[in-house]
Amino acid sequence: MEAQTFTARVATPTTRLVGAMALVSMAWVVIGGLFVTPRDVDQGDAVRIMYVHVPTAWVAYLAFIVTAVASACWLLSRKHSMGFDRVAGASAEVGVVFMAMTLLSGSLWGRITWGSYWAWDPRLTTTAFLLVTYIGYLAVRGLGGSLEQRARRSAVIALLAVLEIPLVHFSVLMWRSLHQKASVLSGDGDIKMDGSMLTTLLVGVIGFTLTFTWLVLHRQRVLAMQDAMQMTQLDAALRERANESENKSVIESSRLK
Amino acid sequence: MSTQLSLGRIARAVAAKDLRIELRSRVVINQIFPFAGLVMVMFAFALDNDDVLTRVAGGLVWLATLFSLIIIIQRSFAVDSADGALEAQRVAGLNPAGIFVGKALAVMVQLVTLEIMLFFAAVVLYRVELHSDGAVLLVTCVISATAGLSFVGTLYGGLTAGARGRETLLPLLMLPVVAPVLIGATRATESAFMSGGAAVSDGWPWVGVLVVFAAVFGLGGILSFGSLIEE
Amino acid sequence: MSTQLSLGRIARAVAAKDLRIELRSRVVINQIFPFAGLVMVMFAFALDNDDVLTRVAGGLVWLATLFSLIIIIQRSFAVDSADGALEAQRVAGLNPAGIFVGKALAVMVQLVTLEIMLFFAAVVLYRVELHSDGAVLLVTCVISATAGLSFVGTLYGGLTAGARGRETLLPLLMLPVVAPVLIGATRATESAFMSGGAAVSDGWPWVGVLVVFAAVFGLGGILSFGSLIEE
Amino acid sequence: MSIVVDLRDAVVVFNGFPALAEASIEVQRGEIVLLQGPNGAGKTTLLRACAGLLPIVRGEASVLGVDLCVDRQSVRPRVGLLGHANGLFADLTIRENVLFWAQMVGASEAEVVSTLQRFGIDGRLAEQKVMQLSAGQKRRCALACLVVRRAELWLLDEPHAGLDASARDEIDAIIREACAAGATVLIASHELERARGLATRSVSVIAGRVVS
Amino acid sequence: MSIVVDLRDAVVVFNGFPALAEASIEVQRGEIVLLQGPNGAGKTTLLRACAGLLPIVRGEASVLGVDLCVDRQSVRPRVGLLGHANGLFADLTIRENVLFWAQMVGASEAEVVSTLQRFGIDGRLAEQKVMQLSAGQKRRCALACLVVRRAELWLLDEPHAGLDASARDEIDAIIREACAAGATVLIASHELERARGLATRSVSVIAGRVVS
Ligand code: HEM
Ligand SMILES: Nc1ncnc2c1ncn2[C@@H]1O[C@H](COP(=O)(O)OP(=O)(O)OP(=O)(O)O)[C@@H](O)[C@H]1O
Ligand SMILES: Nc1ncnc2c1ncn2[C@@H]1O[C@H](COP(=O)(O)OP(=O)(O)OP(=O)(O)O)[C@@H](O)[C@H]1O
Ligand SMILES: [Mg+2]
Ligand SMILES: [Mg+2]
């Protein structure tokens, strides 16, 4: 167990800065996405959903990768510092929220462009599986047991689960798909998009990444405080049991003649 | 003084024990096999259309396998944890990798037997035609898919065994993970059946996916089973 | 002196106990519901065709219900027989009809909740459209089918509970018996959805079948549960 | 009517093995009879047969005036069996477990509370789920469930196993009280000294037969 | 190196409840230590912690020279635990169960046969499935599985419960032999008289602490 020194304050100058930057860039995305960028030739205003849809997807990937990396760090570090485990947990929680936002925005977008909320498409289905996998990951974290066991078990699951991300990303290439082929991260360096749209998209990615960072920093501190609180509660419980022990000893010794 | 055995010998002993229990109780043979057969019949009922059935036969075989896998895994760990025997193995410090490989092997044997039966059922019920061209592909696909399924099943079975109420967590954790196997095996099987005009050669890349999958989870299980069954 | 209670009060106490255990452990809500959802997704994936999906949506909802029913029943009796509590109830000479009705009621509540969720999923995933004309039919169908399924499930659950290895016997025994419910509920639901141009009025005869089925098995259970749970 | 248990050459068979091989025993109302004997002798089988749980394939058996060869059900509400297993609902708390059985026989809540107190499982423990208890605490809870049922014939299979000294004293006192109130008790036990002190009579079960 | 078990203020927590609350105990090689104490005191928890099954959240614990706070695995092959549950495979026969464990440690078949004989579960019984045994016969089988493993540290949780007098004598003799051969034994038991006769020293566990 690491030393338990913590303060009740979760905000630090760094997190405040991150938060402020996140706010600014999100405001930029809202303005850029809704007013500055042009309508799409085919899709009209619906294309504006992209500024939420795509960044949340990528940041969810990022979150799951952070979870995997933190899990690997926990497994490999000699001290098994619980900090890594908390980052892994916090990041997966935020990732699940973002992935859910991707699904939600995607199905709204699908309703407008394809005429239905959902289609049996590899990208969509694998995305749903990825979400369920990480809900399962969070369920495993909630199984109970000691902190160390929670960390060890969930680290293994996180390292296996992250392997699904390539599956989601390349699914459009592997199967016939309705969904957009990769147009930005296609690897051939040829980006097919209007300049202001691209800028707004990039700012969106930065904004969502900052939001993610801010959320994880806070969540991870709250988790640290929860763990620390468990320790203080343990102190109280130990004291209570010690009293019980004194009473019992008296009874027991009088009975054992 | 307790001398610990090699992984291989532990795995053999564990697999032999699991298979002996199965041969003795006949639960899989007498009950899970008919269950899987019934699932196939139910599909036929629910779909109620011959052409569709023949086209999706491969998928249905693997779906039935998947549902049966869940039950086989639950049974495999129920036998161990009923009276705390899994815990006893843990306490005794048996090499967890050996337990993992042994249990996975036993599951594999049961699963392959089941699949052979299901393919026969598909031929009879769904009027699938087997082609000699596709035979090698089909066998390779069955072996690699089964290995992958057994490894994943044993891995998550170990994680969810023991504590009460965890059994039901198994399908939730397992199904999304085995989805690639379902897809890969279905596509490879369809190629082997040449359903919908698929060519046999189309199936091989999918078998590659299956082999990689089995390798990843086999290795993952050997490395991590100890941490997963730990309380 | 032990004064024995009326069937109704025993049934209420048993149902309350089962539902309390479920609310406490959340196994059905947290794990079986997602499992059923996944089964729906898996079907869609295996079928891979939107038109077929919409047409067979009703069947798939009931098939998913059926698979979940098996797990719900297993769980319901596992809770009782884990430490011999079912035997304790038998030894205590509680009116078996009361136990039967109580357990079936608890299963019914869980099943109806599940079905509501599955119909929502069907609307979203399979693009089913609900029509106000079909609403009464749908509700009646759900209620009567659920009652039938719960009675059959509890009956066979009691029969297979207790002795080791019998859990796996449950699906084998139960699936053929509930086939009529599957067919009847599917046809009635398809009428209510008006899929494939079915008329709502076509559904009512099927609901009749469901009601008769529920009545037969409800009565059968009340009369025979005592002999079934006997060792 | 004062003979509560009456077995004559009763035979109970498991897979062809006669676990009870022509056992005969007669127990009067108000007696506390100790069944002693080696492992596998048939003590548990005898108790379960008296509870109407096992079919008697040969011989005669009547309990509380009911002929078990004809009707094994109607005697059960009047019999209380504590088996090797505790028969508790692991997800419910101690209080909920005992209340369930109290409801079944119409016992009052006050009675539940006082029973829990007697067994030292009130207060914090009463609100704990059974699966989180120690072995002895579970056994105490099983005894409490049995006690609220107030049966006429008590069949106790190793009631002392796993209990500490104070709980053993408590269950002994409760058994004596129940007998004074007209109940009859059969105890199978390997704690011979304690059980002999409690019992009014003791018999040996050996290889499926009862030997006095 | 002659100190086999060394706990210092060890704490073990279940859902926030300190089942072991700063317990300290030191056991030398060759000792037979009896843990006595009321139900729910923490005896089982102490034994399971020593077997490396439970994480020590505070304090220090070392068993057979291994620090349990750092490594709970490597000590296990050298420790034998008999818990409240028997840990048997119910579908296998007694012989197959004992053979499984014998294989795991490379014990010979002759040893299996002689162990079965000592516990009186040879012959017909040895070929019987465990699920068809009486409670005491199961316990004997669990003890036989433990004995063939020849551990250095024996942790026995109520080894006498459910056994008849002859099996109790046998297990006591085996424990004495094992100690003479250099093993160390911790026993939790409510059969105080018998256990006190066997033990070289006894301590009380009360509300999660060890009191001498
Ligand atoms: C429920 C429905 C949907 C889901 C679950 C979904 C999911 C995803 C995911 C996971 C990504 C990230 C892919 C990656 O880079 O690996 C993505 C990207 C993208 N999605 Fe969707 N999507 C949905 C609907 C839609 C719709 C309806 C459209 C537009 C017609 C759309 C357009 C895009 C675009 C343009 C990208 C960026 C592709 C790239 O450059 O790589 N999506 N979507
Ligand atoms: N299902 C079965 N099949 C075959 N034999 C059985 C079965 N169940 C029990 N037996 C045998 O019946 C005999 C009597 O068992 P019982 O449980 O009545 O013994 P017991 O006197 O209670 O012993 P203990 O003191 O160990 O609890 C035992 O020898 C046992 O092996
Ligand atoms: N999962 C759990 N959650 C909360 N408390 C628990 C849990 N498991 C055990 N306890 C508590 O820990 C305490 C110690 O239990 P333990 O099993 O060690 O007792 P014991 O000394 O072996 O008692 P017995 O003689 O009854 O076997 C008990 O009071 C029990 O209620
Ligand atoms: Mg017995
Ligand atoms: Mg204990």
Structure description:
The complex is a heteropentamer, with 1 copy of chain A (about 260 residues), 2 copies of chain B (about 230 residues) and 2 copies of chain D (about 210 residues). Chain A has helices spanning about 15-35, 50-75, 80-115, 120-140, 145-160, 165-175, 195-255. Chain A is an all-alpha fold and about 260 residues long. The model of chain A is unreliable at about 1-5 (pLDDT under 50). Chain B has about 230 residues and is mainly alpha-helical. Chain B has one domain (about 5-230). Helices cover about 80% and strands about 0% of the residues of chain B. The model of chain B has no long low-confidence stretch (mean pLDDT about 85). With about 210 residues, chain D is of the alpha/beta class. Chain D has a single domain (about 5-210), classed as P-loop containing nucleotide triphosphate hydrolases (Rossmann fold), CATH 3.40.50. Chain D has helices at about 45-50, 95-105, 110-120, 135-150, 165-180, 190-200, and strands at about 5-15, 15-30, 30-35, 60-65, 65, 80, 155, 185-190, 200-205, 210. In chain D, the strands form 2 sheets. Chain D has a 6-stranded mixed β-sheet, with helices on both faces. A 4-stranded antiparallel β-sheet of chain D has the order 2-1-4-5, with helices on one face. Chains in contact: A-B, A-C, A-E, B-C, B-E, C-D, D-E. The interface of C and D includes residues 4, 17, 21 and 91 of C. One adenosine-5'-triphosphate sits at the interface of chains E and D. Chains B, C: This is Heme exporter protein B.
| Hetero compounds | protoporphyrin IX containing FE, adenosine-5'-triphosphate, magnesium ion
State the share of residues found in helices of chain B, binned by percent.
over 70%
**Count the strands of chain D?**
10
Radius of gyration of chain B: 18 Å
Oligomer: heteropentamer
Q: If you average the pLDDT of chain D, what whole number results?
A: 90
Total number of domains of chain D: 1
> Shape of chain B from CA axes?
globular
Element string of chain D (H = helix, E = strand): EEEHEEEHHHEHEHEE
> Cα distance, first to last residue of chain B?
26 Å
Count of alpha and pi helical runs of chain B: 8
Q: How far apart, in Å, are the first and last alpha carbons of chain D?
A: 23 Å
Major sheet characteristics of chain B: none
Membrane topology (chain A): Multi-pass membrane protein
Family (chain A): Belongs to the CcmC/CycZ/HelC family.
Pfam family, one (chain A): Cytochrom_C_asm
InterPro entries (chain A): Cyt_c_assembly (IPR002541), Cyt_c_biogenesis_CcmC (IPR003557), Cyt_c_biogenesis_CcsA/CcmC (IPR045062)
